[in-house]
Amino acid sequence: MSDLRVVIVDDDFAVAQVHRAFVDAQPGFAVVAEAHTGAEALAAIELHRPQLVLLDVYLPDLSGIDVLRRVRAAGADVEVIAVTAARDLDTVRRARVLGVRHYLVKPFSGASLGERLEEVRRGIVAEQAAPTTKLDQRAVDQVLGAATARRATLPKGLSAVSLERVAAGLAACSSDASAAEIAETLGMSRVSARRYLEHLVATGAAEVAPRYGTAGRPEHRYRTPQR
Length: 227
Known about the structure:
Elements: E1 4-9, H1 13-24, E2 29-35, H2 38-48, E3 52-55, H3 64-73, E4 79-84, H4 89-97, E5 102-105, H5 110-129, H6 137-144, H7 160-172, H8 179-186, H9 190-202, E6 207-211, E7 219-223
Parallel strand pairs: 1-2, 1-3, 3-4, 4-5
Antiparallel strand pairs: 6-7
Helix pairs in contact: 2-3, 4-7, 5-6, 7-9, 8-9
């Protein structure tokens, strides 16, 4: 397996250089670009198609969350490690909804970053090595790093990262939500959101019920099952 392509995004040039040196020193990783603004980050991600982005939240133009939302809307399933001073609940929750599985609050140790890098590398290696047939629980855990079976097999055209985003977005809702509402929150099409929601329903990870309005067809409303 070739080195994983990494883009470093941080508004502080000195911090970006430190992160670059650290990541380049790790076996299996190669930094392909640095970005110091949201616009630069979007351009670098589009140009280099990295497998991993180290993403700061506080940028001078767009926030890191806005960058990530646009990246997801473009269909990129790139892994993201948030490396930021932002520690408020809303930012952490929105990062999770957008598929961020690793979140490091500055200042953090090199050991902590190294652990997250290795977790990402193992997950990508396992995903590439996984068979195209049904996975057993061990294989699912290796690929996704989570003890859940609902994503063991996905219909053609669905991705594990996007499914995680939709599941997290639905779980973050205070009550139920429509496919259109989930789509708007996550920056994806309503058709795509509905496909992921229906898959969650089919696997028992979500529930659906019609809501009847004053006229027209009923609207399907989805929610996480009550435990």
